[in-house]
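Incident log, support desk, overnight shift.

02:14 A customer reports that sequence design results differ from what the structure should imply. Their input is reproduced verbatim below. On-call engineer (initials T.W.) acknowledged and began investigating.
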């Protein structure tokens, strides 16, 4: 089976298919978006679709995109880095 995904819209249409396993969805999306997966299969299909759509909405037009699909706001103190 050959899969051609050339645009963000193609990716979203692929992810909307119900007969695709979540792990395959994640692998294809990460490869197309050039992101690094933090983990596989922790999300439901619907949660993953939402995450991909959010990433596309926020970063589709950006030249420098985040390396990770999942974006979390984490509070930290810079001193914590130096204590490690």
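02:41 Re-run completed on a clean worker. Output:
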């Amino acid at each position: 089976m050959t899969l051609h995904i050339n645009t963000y819209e193609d990716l979203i249409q692929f992810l909307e298919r119900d007969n695709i396993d979540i792990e395959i969805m994640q692998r294809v999306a990460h490869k197309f978006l050039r992101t690094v997966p933090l983990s596989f299969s922790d999300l439901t299909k619907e949660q993953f679709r939402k995450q991909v759509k959010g990433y596309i909405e926020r970063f589709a037009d950006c030249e420098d995109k985040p390396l990770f699909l999942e974006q979390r706001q984490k509070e930290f103190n810079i001193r914590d880095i130096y204590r490690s």
